[in-house]
Amino acid sequence: MVSDGDDSARTARDPMSGDEARAADAWPLRSSLALGAFPSAVSCARLHTRQVIWEWGLKELSEVVELVVSELVTNAVKASAATAADRDPGEPGAPPFVRLLLFGSDREALVQVWDGSPALPVRNAPDLAAISGRGLMLVEAVSARWGYHHVSPSAGPAPPGPRGQPGKVVWALVADPLP
Ligand SMILES: Nc1ncnc2c1ncn2[C@@H]1O[C@H](COP(=O)(O)OP(=O)(O)O)[C@@H](O)[C@H]1O
Ligand SMILES: [Mg+2]
User: Fold this and answer.
1) Residues lying with their CB under 5 A of ligand 2, a single-atom ion
2) CA torsion sign, 69 to 47 to 34 to 9?
């Protein structure tokens, strides 16, 4: 596991006031974790998520957020294995990374997972006979919204790639269902 530590900040802005997929600054609570893109990253990401969500007092969201993290990190690791785009050009032998970003407010959590693959996620149509291809369906079912966007060094704010590389973020918003 490669951790670059947690980074938390509090602001008065409403996290839902803008595009929650991009407006990271709007979230009062934030955590960032870079992981080597290996299968073991999935359980590391899940444990990290459980701890952070507990620390933020969002325990009731924990199960769903952990599920979302597992699916998105699994996909990011798979996508990273299929590309060399997230390798550091100055360090060609370095293994690819993925980055898990968690954002929280008093009732919601936003999961973002960065990877360096240019390929995009595809939510498959329901197929009872299929033995795989259900991860994003699951994410869609348990989250309020999900989506993805490309990030590039020229896009303004620093992209979440571990060393500033371009890539993409797949995100999902988990909201407390209680009024
Ligand atoms: N982070 C990602 N990068 C590239 N492609 C992705 C990513 N996440 C998902 N995909 C694509 O979307 C498809 C569906 O993902 P998913 O529903 O999780 O099913 P599965 O992982 O079992 O194939 C994947 O097979 C892959 O082609
Ligand atoms: Mg999957």
Assistant:
1) 75, 135
2) positive
The pTM is what?
Answer: 0.84
Q: pLDDT tens digit string along 102-147?
A: 999 999 999 999 998 989 999 888 777 777 789 999 999 999 999 9
Mutation to probe ligand 1, out of 78, 86, 97 (largest number of atoms < 8 A from CB): 78
What does DSSP say about strands 167-175 and 108-115: parallel, antiparallel, or unpaired? antiparallel
Ligand 1 centroid to Cα of residue 87, in Å, is 20
* Cβ partners under 8 Å of residue 101, min gap 6: 24, 30, 31, 32, 33, 111, 112, 113, 114, 160, 169
pLDDT digits (tens, 9 = 90+) for 57-93: 999 999 999 999 999 999 999 999 877 544 555 555 6
Around ligand 1, the residues with Cβ closer than 6 Å are: 71, 75-76, 79, 115, 117, 119-122, 124, 132-137, 170
Domains and CATH numbers, the chain: 29-86+93-154+165-175 (3.30.565.10)
Cβ neighbourhood burial of 172 (10 Å; 0-12, 13-18, 19+)? buried
